[in-house]
From TrEMBL:
Its EC number is 2.7.7.7. Residues 308-335 form a coiled coil. It holds the Pfam family DNAX_ATPase_lid. Residues 407-499 are annotated as: Disordered. PANTHER family: PROTEIN STICHEL-LIKE 2, REPLICATION FACTOR C / DNA POLYMERASE III GAMMA-TAU SUBUNIT. The lineage of its organism: Bacteria, Pseudomonadati, Spirochaetota, Spirochaetia, Leptospirales. SUPFAM superfamilies: P-loop containing nucleoside triphosphate hydrolases (SSF52540). One of its GO terms (cellular component) is DNA polymerase III complex. This is DNA polymerase III subunit gamma/tau. Transmembrane segments: none annotated. The keyword Signal does not apply. Belongs to the DnaX/STICHEL family.
Amino acid sequence: MSENHQVLFRKYRPQFFRDVIYQDLAVGSLQNAFKSKKIGHAYIFIGPRGVGKTTIARILAKRLNCENPDGVEPCNECTSCLEITKGNSNDVFEIDAASNSGVDNIRELRENVKFNAMGGKYRVYILDEVHMLSGAAFNALLKTLEEPPAHVVFILATTEYHKIPETILSRCQDFHFRKVPVTVLQNYIETLCTKEGLKYDTEGLFWIAKKGDGSVRDTLSFMEQAVIFTDGNLTGVKLRKMIGYHGIDTFTDFFNQLIDSSQSAQIFETLENLFQAGIDLGKFIWDFIEFLNSLLLIKDNLADRESINIPQEDLQKLKQNYRELDREILVLLAERIFSIHEKLNLMKLRSSYEMKVYLEIQFRKLILDREKPSVSGLLAKISELTKLVQGDISALPDNVEQVKKQIPSQTASISTNQKDPKLAGSQTTNETQVSAKQKVESQSNVNGNLETNAMTQKTLESNKAQPSANPTSSEEEMEKLLKEKFSGMEVDPNQFKNL
Ligand SMILES: [Zn+2]
């Protein structure tokens, strides 16, 4: 398999600039250099793995030494071109800096650059993974870059730009390579399928392109495996099986089980079925987190083939059915499941059975949290009651007026009468005095209650500010207390606020 595995990637490795996909910026600049005959002595190719850095370095080396170049392209037919393609040119040196990172390796290189090119015009040094060089090796390289012999061209390639010393960068022309988008990869492998006579469908190609994660090399490597696994039939159904994608229905079912309390018991059935089928439960949970995130992206109109791991057909289904979901519920649920997954990783459980037990406990807890009346539900109720009580107070002046009518005119007002010295000798009747006094006491009680409520609310809010995954005992006590206090009242469980 490993022999075949290399074949596809090597077979379709671009030999001309024009065959390289998606790196127009870098390729265009290099072609312009040939057009204007301004060849630099040091280039640095920066970008993720497998997007064509080494491939383009070789095409550049070929074009530099080509005996019959065709405009900006090498001929790929002359001795020099053929030798470079085969990897046995005496003028092109590919050095893996990761395994030749020492200063001695670079010193040796410095000795070699003095010699003239054997067959071609240039000696080309391609230093792959150049960020792996030691500090001393970089210094040694710098001396060569400062005064390069006219017949030498350096092509440095790296995936980690920030690890290259500024002194080196300042002496190189930099070219940036980009990750290849899924759609571009998908179109590219479709042309390969046609050339290879492979059967395929859009979803099958989508999964292969997705697996490549922006890298042409990785895409073709995975395609090679997929051809073997599916016996040359690259369909979505077969690819799903190969990569262990459960299909959108599994996730939507699981999601419904989590948000609908009447389906809670089925959560455990789902986990058991996955376990029995030998599915990696950790991966399932991660995929489910991705699914929730996709739902959020759909809400924000940010979901497309590049941003999410869901085939086009499934994406359409989700857009139709889940766009109206409550964002808060989604975020809370995603956070909760994420924390379960995080703990799962930390625990380093020994077997899939232990993993299943752990998940069962965690999901049981999640269901319990979901179903008990939430603190925020009670808070909403308190706020309602507070408004109600405040409404009573605002109604007070009317009552006061009524009381005043019963009280002789000397009584200025109920709220100030205790402070008013004139009232000390007032001729109010005992009856009205008692009535007024009761009212004042009643008002005072109302104020007292309000203060208590305000304090309760404050305490609750401060409790709520703490991480809610594990309700503190004080939170539980408070909840118990409030339940007693408001027993008989209808309290909105506001379920997911409690997750
Ligand atoms: Zn040639």
